[in-house]
């Protein structure tokens, strides 16, 4: 089944109103000028910018997403933001289970699945992140770890329209270190097999992104690998030039 590439930018805890305006308008104009471009593009700003960025993106082909959500839609949860609120900002995606939340906020698979369920219940697609630590990779457990994370954190009733999986080896995030092509292929094919066991016929349409130190200089080699259906970009998504160059690489187009 043909899967449309997805190039997603995770801004993390970065961005004030002024810099986000320049970043978003730069991306909109580059995208509008490239008629041959066929990948889906997504930006995931912090909650504080969802409304503003959503308004800027309205009418453009670039989608809006959030970086996390609560498991409930309303209630006495001080400091939290619900999937319904994110949807209300015009978003269509929500990242859940990023390793910075799994480790920094002690989020386990069951909570991540509940967040993904909450996202789906209001019509958002969930981007479920999985990835092994460096000791787990050294111990030869990377495939086993990501499969267990996937099996226990994807939402019930997921389909290609409502689920994206992002493989992000923890040791590659923000480090400038990247896995070899063989390592990426091994994990992505393992995740695809695991998805088949979980979702049956739906599995072949679910996109599996690679994330972790994706840059313009390495994006093309990731994007050519089998079962790599796009990328989740952190640091490089904060630069119009870099994020756009990565998007072009996903299409085999020159920067
Ligand atoms: P990075 O982050 O591209 O800065 O390594 C990726 C991510 O955490 O999604």
Question: If you had to describe this structure to a student in words, what would you say it looks like?
Answer:
The protein has helices at residues 17-33, 47-57, 83-88, 99-104, 109-121, 134-138, 142-153, 181-199, 216-223, 240-250; strands spanning 6-10, 40-44, 62-66, 93-96, 125-130, 163-167, 207-211, 230-233. With 255 residues, it is α/β, with parallel strands linked by helices. The protein has a single domain (6-249), classed as TIM Barrel (Alpha-Beta Barrel), CATH 3.20.20. Strands 1-2-3-4-5-6-7-8 form an 8-stranded parallel barrel, surrounded by 7 helices. The mean pLDDT is 96. The protein binds 2-phosphoglycolic acid. Residues 10, 168, 173-174, 211-214, 232-236 line the site of 2-phosphoglycolic acid.
Identify low-pLDDT runs: none
Strand content: 15-25%
Distance between the termini: 28 Å
CATH topology heading: TIM Barrel
Global shape? globular
Q: Main sheet, how many strands, which sense, barrel?
A: 8 strands, parallel, barrel
- Computed Rg: 17 Å
Per DSSP E runs of 2 or more residues, the count of β-strands stands at: 8
Could you state the order of secondary-structure elements as H and E?
A: EHEHEHEHHEHHEHEHEH
Strand arrangement within the widest β-sheet reads 1-2-3-4-5-6-7-8
